[in-house]
Amino acid sequence: MIHFNNAGSSLQPRPVTEAVAAHLAREQEIGGYEAEAVAADALASFHGGFAKLLGADPSEIAYVENATRAWDMAFYGLTARRQGGGPRIHGQ
């Protein structure tokens, strides 16, 4: 089932559910910081891999914990940009 009104309402694809479950199991076995260290290489390669998929530069890719935080960062960035600071937005 797909909900077009809210991505958070859609069912996760099975690979996502399996990856999250595996990471949570690893945290339970060895601890959160240690599980993060195990996943560090995969997390570090995310920017490059996703940038390649989109035809972008890795510096143009932001990864945050959820869509609410992403929108929050984007809108605060626009405000900062109007005030002379913040991230550069292409075309401005």
Describe the structure.
61% of the residues lie in helices and 0% in strands. It contains three helices and no strands. The protein has two domains: 8-58, no CATH class; 62-92. With 92 residues, it is mostly helical. The model has no long low-confidence stretch (mean pLDDT 82). The chain starts with 13 loop residues before the first helix and ends in a 10-residue tail after the last helix.
Question: Please, what is the average pLDDT?
Answer: 82
**Strand tally, please?**
0
Percent helix range: 55-70%
Overall radius of gyration: 17 Å
Order of helices and strands: HHH
The structural class is mainly alpha
Task: Estimate what percentage of residues fall within beta strands.
Answer: under 5%
Low-confidence stretches: none
User: Judging from the principal axes of the Cα atoms, what is the shape?
Assistant: extended
Structure, briefly:
The protein is an all-alpha fold. The protein has two domains: 8-58, no CATH class; 62-92.
SSE inventory with pairings:
Elements: H1 14-30, H2 32-54, H3 67-82
Helix pairs in contact: 1-2
Comma- or semicolon-separated keywords:
0% strand, 92 residues, 61% helix
